[in-house]
């Protein structure tokens, strides 16, 4: 095994031959060998063993092969090989395999048109198993804590029979039980649906309910430090799935309509539970904005109270606060504009307080300040019409006074800015 691993590394480190006229001879010589090693001579490993490293290097070589006409005679077998690894191997090798599959499908569209369904079936499988995967990682009664924690570290054990150079192998997760794999799937499926539209009608009706269920899974309330990485991966996978659903909104509204309220609640719950990662939260906000551009925005109307909390919109991290506030409040302004006539006075007052503060907040771009001011102007009539008794009249007066004060302060700031 050690000799095979060293030989594979030498091939990987001298891969320049594939960019020469000898590429075809390289494929004839090595591709069959790679297939035999991956399917017969080695088996998928649950730890970072030498056998795993051999398989990993071979997959890395395969992923780096140029996708030219020289490769075309081999692409059918290469796709089958990558699918075999993806469905049976561990997460590390599965991630390489899924990228191989994407490259093949992207570069050999006509050649592989009839061989897409196995991959789509795999996507359905990981979505169907998503709930069980969450339980595997986060259910304390499953007894997997030590195994899961070991998958994110390499332990060095010092003892009488060991040396500091002999680390205990890292434990590896199955590809079918990987949040990272789920994260990679939506992009590929979107591409496939764009290119091979005849696969859409048979797969979308099955995928949409599965995805709606995936994003509705809350995950753990409390996460131990050992499982923090898995928690971030969980939320990233769910956010990618939300993005996939928003892509399907316009074309497959009839299939998504039964899940309208569920999807909206899931998005808000993700905003509440999402870790303070700028990339993840930004993608979720963009997906929310895409939903608001459709009739499915109605699902958010009952969730305004949650969205009026800044920690829900942008999280609590400093980087998120500084980066995402303009986008978040632009989205919130758009939502409130659609529902302003139906909001009670208490919510309208809260909106005025929030957006009057933002109007004079110089940390926002001028465009966002203008959006906030425009929203307050649009709220004047709905607020004024809420005068039904002395108590509400007093609240109306206070809210309109707050808006007027914000406008006066803003004009003063503009006067100072223009004079400079």
TrEMBL record:
**GO biological process, alphabetically ordered:** DNA repair; regulation of DNA-templated transcription
Gene Ontology CC: one annotated term: NuA4 histone acetyltransferase complex
What this protein is called in its record is Transformation/transcription domain-associated protein
Organism, per UniProt?
Answer: Taxus chinensis
Transmembrane domains' residue ranges: none
